[in-house]
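Run Outer membrane efflux protein through structure prediction, thanks.
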Amino acid sequence: MKNSITILLLLFAVTLTSAQVRQWTLQECVEYAVENNLTVEQFELDLENAKIDKSDAIGNMLPSLNGSTSVSSNTGFSINPTNNLPTNSTANNMNIGVSSNVTLFDGLRNMHQLNRAKMNAIANQYRLDNLKDDIRLNVANAYLQVLSNKEQLKTFKAQYAVTEQDLKRTKELVESGVVPRGDLLEIEATAANQEQQIVNGESNVLIARVNLAQLLQITDYENFDIAEEEFDIPPSDILKNSPKVIFDKALGFRNDIKFSESNVDLAEQDLKIAKGAYLPTLSAFFQYGTRYSDVTQIPDGDGIPYTPNLTDQLWIFDGISYGAQLSIPIFNGWSTRNNVMRSKISLEKAKLQFKQDKLDLEYTIQQAYVDVSTFEKAYIAAEKTLEARRLAYEYAKERFDVGLMNAFDFSQAQSRVENAQADVIRTKYDYIFRLKILEFYFGLPISLN
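Sure, done. The structure for Outer membrane efflux protein is below.
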């Protein structure tokens, strides 16, 4: 019974630990970051505001309807509201009214406002999607940095394991008098340096993990880690396309370009709205009103004055008014002209920004294309260097084992191998990231497969 309880407790502890430390894949990180980023949530609220602006624009074209009522009491001298004669008594009065106004023509400004609200909603959607694109790239870069640092840490530990074996063997040779004690001291220094590399490597992994967790808005850094996977250089045909082909395709789907272009459309609508103020405004109105007063006196059928009750007075004194109003702008201190001029300037600025954004995209793609080619060559060169350093190290080890090389020269050969291994890991992930950036501009999703 006691053994069974112990086993259950161990299983529970293992299960709890596994549940706490989640191994995140790149796809999971990207999706989680997009769904939980605070700036994304803010931009989504801006998008909701833009949709409300559309509702406002529609409402401006509909008739307004307002009701009003007032109740008052006058003591002493006052004017009887039913006959406009002076009275010197206490009077209780009530007025009820309904009014409606509608704009028939305002220089098409309401229509342009509606079109602008629709365009603004689309522009905010482009801005939101562009933010998500940036988050995906940033998360991919941070994820690859964790992978790179983890691989380097594994390499440091593997190198230290080899050095430990050399250290053990050298101690035996020193004790037997085959090699001088200076060789042992040199290898001990190499081992100490590698231990420091391991400490720094662990720190780099931790910092990279924290950086990635922050991009995901995760604060439980201790229980956050990425999946233990090794990635080779993914196959890609992206360099078969010229920078011009990639740029032309990017123009058709990049959200930052669409957002910039939509800002030009918004500026054009703003100009139309400003010009609409030059034209007359035609509106129509309708009003219905009635009243009641307890000092009202009207003759009955026999000519005897009496005070009608509330219901009768509301029907007796009701009335309607309706009509149209035309407002023609003549002079308003040049405010309309100045608004039009400002709108024209804003339109030109939007057009210039659109051109600049396209130039920036073209430059970025050209740079990304060159980076892919450059880092590919750097990675290939690093692999060749590592192979050569390994051969030199093996030769040096053979000479060191038979006493034909001192420990200092041997440690230098080993150090060159370590540096070459670090260069291979660094250039590998630099190349992968640049490759994914270029593919991203070509419309391919971020994936390490």
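Strands lie at 22-24, 64-74, 77-79, 86-88, 91-105, 224-226, 281-293, 298-299, 305-306, 319-327.
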